[in-house]
Design a protein that fits this description.
2 domains, 7-stranded mixed beta sheet, alpha/beta, 3-stranded antiparallel beta sheet, Aspartate Aminotransferase, domain 1
């Protein structure tokens, strides 16, 4: 049976270049990066190189603005709660959007339970935050604004530079979840006026279990883990040298190959969407028609459920998602699609197709064939189809 993986927004494989960078760290350069002897210094050099690579990839001013974490969710939690607590004496109001990753939303909910006030901005039908809504929401007590750079379900790109500029005009710190943006967009934290940004390795052909928080020098943040001097005394714990090395290499490659990969993904996306719209009626493509990344397509199929499509595709060797992998076990309409004013019926029938750099037109042809078959099969037995016909 043929296998086609179209869930790259959930995770990617580890590329051979990244794996080659990591392997010596398991059994050759295996010292503790905080030890003072030669073995430790060798490991520390690898960590320093990775930190430099991450800093260069996003044009951070200095490499000490990069803090390694266990992933994007940890970086989001640390940024939201750590900055909020550090500036609580100035104010306890935070602004975010209704379509953020749950790592941001749940961190904000926790802060609300501690007495903080959180404003959840609405989005338009394309998933964009309105700058006028943002300005209207800012208060004298606002200390932090957190808006994601790219939505993980529909691929819409936010106007990050304008949002950051607005935040700074009112003296507010700006954080962005950049997990889906790295490798898909040119990110320049200085030009875009980003104060803090979360990143993750496993979305860009790096290892799982490692990410980073960019934190502009001068921005205060509460320490995350006590008990060690790692990450400038802010996140204690033995450094995961192999994973950190892999992340450094992965982000370097992502920036190096960005233009080539995006051109290929654009061609594949266009080919896929044209084929699907030509052969399958009663669908809706979600997200912004132009202001979007090339690797993600979210489609609602009328009169059927997304979970059923997913299972039938899986039987044919095709891997897709009904939304964020972090909420894939929750059989409820996507909070992102609901915020975009998409009906529960359409939201329940949505599938996210996220392409990787090795996808081919032959793969797409196979996927469209099995997708058309699955949709026709499900609609033939759907009570919603019968009701519509009546």
């Amino acid at each position: 049976m043929r296998k086609v993986y179209l869930d790259n927004a959930a995770t990617t494989y580890v590329s051979s270049e990244v794996l080659a960078e990591m392997l010596p760290c398991f059994n050759t350069v295996y010292g503790n990066a905080n030890s003072l002897h030669g073995f430790g210094r060798e490991a520390a050099n690898i960590v320093d190189r990775a930190r430099d690579r991450v800093a260069r990839a996003i044009n951070a001013n200095k490499s000490n603005e990069i803090y390694f974490t266990s992933g994007g969710s940890e970086a989001d939690n640390w940024a939201i709660k750590g900055i909020a607590h550090a500036y609580a004496n100035k104010g306890k109001h935070i602004i975010t959007s209704a379509i953020e990753h749950h790592a941001v939303l749940d961190a904000c909910k926790q802060l609300e339970s501690e007495g903080f006030e959180v404003t959840y901005l609405p989005v338009d039908k394309y998933g964009l935050v309105n700058i006028a809504d943002l300005i209207h929401a800012i208060k004298k007590t606002t200390t932090l604004i957190s808006i994601m750079a790219v939505n993980n379900e529909v691929g819409t790109i936010q106007n990050i530079k304008a949002i950051a500029k607005t935040a700074h005009e009112y003296g507010v710190i700006f954080h962005t979840d950049g997990v889906q943006a790295i490798g898909a967009l040119r990110i320049d934290v200085q030009d875009m006026e980003i104060d803090a940004m979360s990143m993750s390795a496993h979305k860009i052909y790096g290892p799982k279990g490692v990410g980073a928080l960019y934190l502009k020098n001068g921005i205060r943040i509460e320490n995350l883990i006590s008990g060690g001097s790692q990450e400038r005394n802010k996140r204690g714990g033995t450094t995961n040298v192999p994973a950190v090395a892999g992340f450094g290499k992965a982000i370097e490659i992502a920036v190096r190959d960005l233009s080539m990969n995006q051109q290929k993904l654009k061609a594949i996306r266009t080919y896929f969407v044209d084929k699907v719209t030509e052969r399958i009626p009663y669908i809706q493509i979600n997200g912004h028609p132009h202001q979007k990344i090339q690797g993600t397509v979210n489609i609602s199929f009328e009169m059927i459920e997304g979970e059923s499509i997913l299972m039938l595709l899986d039987l044919e060797g095709v891997a897709v998602s009904t939304g964020s992998a972090c909420t894939s076990q929750v059989l409820e309409p996507s909070h992102v699609l609901k915020a975009m004013k998409i009906s529960d019926e359409l939201a329940q029938g949505s599938i996210r197709f996220s392409f990787g750099k090795n996808i081919t037109k032959s793969d797409v042809d196979y996927v469209v064939d099995v997708l058309e078959k699955a949709v026709n099969q499900l609609r033939s037995i759907s009570p919603l189809t019968k009701a519509g016909r009546k």
